[in-house]
Every structure is written in structure tokens, then in C-alpha cells.
Amino acid sequence: MQNAILKVAKPLPPAIERLSELAINLWFSWNPDALQLFAQMDPAKWAQTGHNPVRLLYDLDDATLEALSNNTDFLVQYRQVISKFDAYLNDPTWFQDKHGDRGYVQVAYFSAEFGFHESLPIYSGGLGILAGDHAKSASDLGIPLVGVGLLYKKGYFTQKIDASGGQHSELYDYDFAKLPIAPVLHEGAHRTVSIDMPGRAITLQIWQVQVGRNRIYLLDADHEANNPADKELTAQLYGGNQDTRIAQEIVLGIGGVKALRALGIYPNVYHINEGHAAFLTLERLKELLHLGLPFHVAVETVRSATVFTTHTPVPAGHDTFSIGMVEHYLGPLFHELSRHKQAIIALGLDHHTGQFNMTHLAMNTAGLRNGVSKLHGQVSREMFKEFHGHIDANEVPIGSITNGVHLDTWTAPEWKELLDRFLPGTWREEQGNKHQWQQVEVIPDESIWKVHQQLKDDLVRFARQNIMEQRKRNGESEERIAEVRQYLNPKALTIGFARRFATYKRANMIFNDLYRLKKLISDPDRPVQFIFAGKAHPADYPGQELIREIYRISQMKEFIGKVVMLENYDMNMARYLVQGVDVWLNNPRRPLEASGTSGQKAAMNGVLNFSVLDGWWEEGYNGMNGWAIGSTGTADWAVQEKENTQSIYHILEKEIIPLYYNQGNLPHQWINRMKRSIQSLSPVYNTHRMVQDYTEETYLPTADRARLFVANHYEIATKVADYKQFIRNNWYQVKIIGIDDRSAKLSTEVPLSEIKPSTKEVSAQVHFGPIWPQDTAVEIIYYEDNGEKWEQRIIAMEPTGELVEHIQSYKAAIPGHLIHGPHFSIRVRPISTNFAHSFELSLVTSTLSWQ
Ligand SMILES: *Cc1c(COP(=O)(O)O)cnc(C)c1O
């Protein structure tokens, strides 16, 4: 593995030489004093470069750099930042401390997008930001993790809004030499790997991003050896058509594994962050088949080392390709592995649609899978129930790890200063410690409001600037440009809404009753204003219509200066918004927002969430830390829309506005709620907690299983694979042949002392054929009304007596009122200590089924 320190190639004066390291380590992006250091080198250029320190260093002339290297004030700050940077890189970490004996763990995190900072535009929205925040916390915590992604020459599009609200997407060619990335070099040349595509090979260049302690490797196809069309493969994130998409996913998955090998990296955990990256399992399968492993052993080996996170219940979010397309693009792979072609296709086949589905591929090749909030876990278990035969949705082996955000990235420096003053010194390291967050209580209301008001002022300035630029570019009149200076009142209750303009997020919902909204907004004593921002995918016309509609409303007389639509939502704007508004509005169709993270960013800055009980908010809301829109139902969309609309206006009129304006000098009750919000949400919805959960619930067990499976020449992998085959082939012989639930038995078989009037004994006989009873679990399943819903209960049955003629008897004590048939059933399922979860073999024999 390459571990040389990365540097910007431009020579710098010796006294400030290490800026060349700092500029290329994304650590700068979550350290305000590092950002400040760069900004003050030349504030205007800093803004011009889009906060890109590498470009800044290139753009500054030698005289300026020389002057800075002789500027005592600058040098003092420089040294402070560098010593903090060194301490960060060398301090002991949570992982060393807690899991120091697991030095063998090596995680590879594959994602089609990473959002680290606005200066590296390889993200489109929540998925990318999550990946970036994940990598940052992994570094903070010392998790041995490398990332794998794509480097898009033109990034994601830049959004311009025209004078009638139309969205225009612009693309720029980024100069890779001036991004905060570095080529991976090998003997002086740019390191490449080659992947096979139909009829040709494609050369991919490997780049690296330093994120604190960890590296992210990015692949790019813009290499001279490639034909012009192939050079464009990695031009744009989510650009092009289905062909581009599948080719990009091959580059990411297959090219990504090859890149790791070229760098000598052999992870024992492969984390597929959304189905896009699932082809990585096919490259690993190929490697193992080439080693001579039988197909079923190779699949078990791959599965033992794979973790999959699914991110959306929206069907369009799951990539599917026709089988013909897969056969074409994976042609070279199938050529090499022709015997296994059908078996490989079967790994991704969706039987209902006849399509190859990347989520299916990931589900079938990952030992552990999870959704991104408790509710999304539940929704995913319903969605993918059929992967595991006839079992209750709650048993489907898909867990959930609720998303979080990187606290240091998203919390305003002003807030961090307050926390530094009033919380124990360990608050950053121990973000999950609820106890220390209680100390927010003692921060004086004045201090909180001062910080909040300042951030709001900053936002208002930023928003006006954004709109002025729109208007100037659109050639609007001087008058129209000048009036923007009066837009947005820094003292008014300010509500923010910013996210991708996917239709299910219903950006225009607040406008459903314009008359009622007008009344709300126009109260001179209690003004309310809204700030909107968000990009619609260039192919999403309904999404672009929403932008146009909001823009049109923002131009209506009653709403001028009170409803604004900003252009080009990115991480920079996101920070202003989530730090500067009073309320963060989120009203998706439930349950389509798998988690959502912008509200978590807002919460950390004392901004109150006003959201549908979807995604993370369903578990985060406690009645005191924000507001819940509508109910927890998942009614018909039209009904939901009506109910949610009513609920939004009602809560605004009756709760939010009165609470905000119930103030003398300071809105104490509002601030009290801000405190409740920070105390309850900051310790939970941060990526430290999230990455710790991933580590302990998925990475560690997966690394251990992966090592176990390959040890001793794939001994356990072979055992598991053969075992599964044997069980599958013989399961048809497993039959439950006799059940006795007469309570009369009780008196004869249970000692009197153990008789509880409410229990009785059930016995059953199971015929196993050649299968060992010890390789199965025999269980009683029944349902109990817990007041809200029918909840599944499971009681394990114990074997009694000897195995006779392949038949084994079992018994268990059950609640006395249950009667077999109408009330309970018995089931048998195969088990193994080497399974990652209870239903790795979706074979269940049951006496009846409620499904
Ligand atoms: C946080 C963030 C998102 C994701 O927000 P959601 O609430 O999940 O929609 C999208 N885009 C940007 C720029 C962000 O910072």
C-alpha cells in the first residue's frame, strides 16, 4: 500500500511549506481554522476558487507567498494549524483503543459518489454526502478504511435558474491537477488499471483523495489510450443513458477491485454503498474461480466478506438493466467464465421483471445488509421479503443503521466555540455521550441567540448575493437587481427547504393553499419567510417543473422577498442554510425518505426540525425537539398530501409562529426547544455513532467471518457451501409429522412444581431424512396482540429422546390458550454457526403459513 504523504506539486517558501500537505488533505474541510488560514491568504481568490486550497496555492504568485511566509501573524496561525493537524494524525483513536486487537480489519467502501467538500464536485446529494461523512468519521475514529469511487471530469452539473424559473444545467471541465486530489504514481508514471469491455480494453487512471488518515481511490477513464467515447465514460455523475450507467458501474465495481489489487490492498470487508457498486462482487468471484474454487464455494467466500447498504425504497433508485445489456457489457467476463454465465446472471435476476437488478445482486452476494433508519429497515424487509421464502417480514435479515452527519463538518464554528466553552473537553471524541450534551442546558440564552442571529444574518447576506447573481446573469433591470437588497428580513421567522428536487420530496407542498399561506406570511407583526434551494436531475422534468412553480410564486406580489429560490445547491450553500434558518422543513411522501440527513445537520445548529415522521425523524422526534407533520400512516398519496398540508398550516399557525414571536428581548421558549433539540439529537445522529455501529455490527463480524472462510485453503467456505448444497438437495424430506398439544400431558410429564396454570406442553415429531436434526432449529411461532399490532413470538422446541428412523421428537411449553392450527404453527429451518444470519438458506418447513 502506498502511504507517502501527498503534496501539492507547487514549490512553496520553506516557512509555509506544509501548506502543500494541508491543501490536499480534506481534513481542512472540517477544521475552521485551516479554512480560515487559506481564506486569509487572499479572501477574494479563496472565494473565486470555490474554496479550493490547491487552486488557491497555484493561483497565488510568488511575491504573495513570499510575503505571507514573512508575515508573523500568519505564521503564528500557520503553526497552530499544522500542530493541530499533526496531533490529529498521530493521536490514539477509538478503534485502537477499543478494538486494538483487530489490526487485521481492512474495509473497502465503494460508492458512486463522495461529498467531502464543495471544492471536489463528485457528489449529487444525500448519498454522496453520507459517503463523505462516513469517510471523515472513519478517519476520526481510526477505522482502517479505504474508499473506492469515480472521478468525474465534469462532476455533477452546476444549476442556473433563468428569469422564468427554468433550470439550466452547466458542465465544466475540471482541471484535475488543481483539485484536492493526487494521482497514484508508480515508477514515476500515473498508475492505471485496465478493464475489459466488449471488443476492447479500457485504461483507468487511479487518483487518491486524502481524508484525514484514510485514502479514497478514484477511477477516471479519460486516458489517451481510450477511444473518444470511452474517455467520456466517467465524464459526469449520473449523466448519459443506461449504457453509460452500466459502463460506469463496471468501472466502479470491477475496475475498483482491480485498482485495489494494483495497490496491494486485499480487504476483508467490502462495503457496497448502494447497488451501483455491486459489480465488485463479480470481479471477486472471478478472482476466486481463477484460483480454482468451485462456483458455490467462491460465492460463499464473496458473501462472507460483503456488506450492503440499501438507500431508498423509491423504485427508480434501484438500477436495473436488461439481460441483453448485461450479457453485452459483461461479455468479456462471461467469455472467461462461460460455464457460470447463467449462475452469475441469476445472482442479479429479478424474477418479476426479468431484469438484472443491482440491488438483487448486492442482496444475493452480501452476508449482511442494512437500511438507513429503523423505518427504512422495516420498509426494506417488506420490499425484499421474497429473498427468504415464507417468513414474517420482521425476520427478514436486513438490519438498520440510522444515518448521521459529520458533526465537525456541519456544525458552525460559532456553535463549536460555544460547545467548547460549556461542554466537557471530550465532547468531540465522545459525541455519543448523551450525558455531556446535557450541559447545553447551562449555555446562556443570550449566547445562543447571538450565535444564531449572526448565522442568520450570514445566510440572508449569502441568499441576497445568490439572487443578485441570478438576476445579473439573466440580464434583468437595475431595479430588479437593487430590490434584492430588501429581500429577506433577518429578524423574521425563517423556514428553509433544500434538497434534491425529486418529486416525492414535495418541495411545493407548502403552496397547496396559497390563500392561507399569504395570510400567514403577511402578518406585519409576525413575518414568516421561506428559502428554497435544490437541483432537479436534468432528466427529471417534473422535478424541474417544481422549481419553476416555486420561482413563479416567489415573483408574486405578496411573496416577493419572502419566498426565495436560490440556485446551485451545494455543500457550501447547505452549510449556510442548515446553520442559518430557524426551522428546517421536510415533507416527503412517507415512507419514501429512507433517512434524510439535512435535518440532522440543522439540528446540530439549534435549527428546529419540522418534518413528516419519515426516515430518521420518526425515531429522532420526541415531542419536545421540533414538530411532526401529519401522522405515522402510509396512506394513499392523495390522502397523505391532504392531511400533511392541513397539518403543516395548523402547526405553523398554532405552534411555530406563536412560539417564535412569544418574546420580549429573547424568545426563551424557542431557545429552550433549541436546547432540547441539540441535547437529544446531536449525540445520536452523527456519523461517529453511525460508523461505530457499522464497525461493531457489520465490519468486525464480517472481517472475522471472511478470515475464517478463507483460512486453511477455504476450508470453512467449502464446508458452508457443501452444507448448503446438501441441505438444499435434501430439504424436501423434512416433514413435521405429528403434533400433540393436549394439555392433559402436562400432569404426567412436567413436575408439579413447574406447572404454571397458563402454560401447557406441545410435542411434535419431525422426519429429517438424511439431514441431521442438530443442523436445524424447530420452533413454535405464534402472534400476540401487543395493543398496537400482532407481534410474532418464537419459542424454541427442545429435542426429546433418540432419533429413530430419521424421526426426532421435540417439546416446548407454550401459553395454555394456544391451539395448534388456529393459533400457532411449528416450523423447521436449517441453521449453522457459520451463517451470517438466520435465513441464509431460505428453506422453512412449516405446519401452516399466515402469509
Ligand atoms: C445534506 C445534503 C443533502 C441531503 O439532504 P437530504 O435531507 O437527505 O435530502 C443533499 N445535498 C446537499 C448539498 C447536502 O448538503
From TrEMBL:
**One short Pfam family name for this protein?**
Phosphorylase
Kindly give the InterPro entries that the UniProt entry links to this protein. Answer: Agluc_phsphrylas, Glyco_trans_35, Glycogen/Maltodextrin_Phosph, Glycogen_phosphorylase_DUF3417
The signal peptide, as residue positions, is: none
Task: State the source organism's domain of life.
Answer: Bacteria
Domain DUF3417 intervals: 12-120
Q: Which top EC class applies here?
A: transferase
Q: What is its EC number?
A: 2.4.1.1
This protein is called Starch phosphorylase
Q: Say which species the protein is native to.
A: Paenibacillus aceris
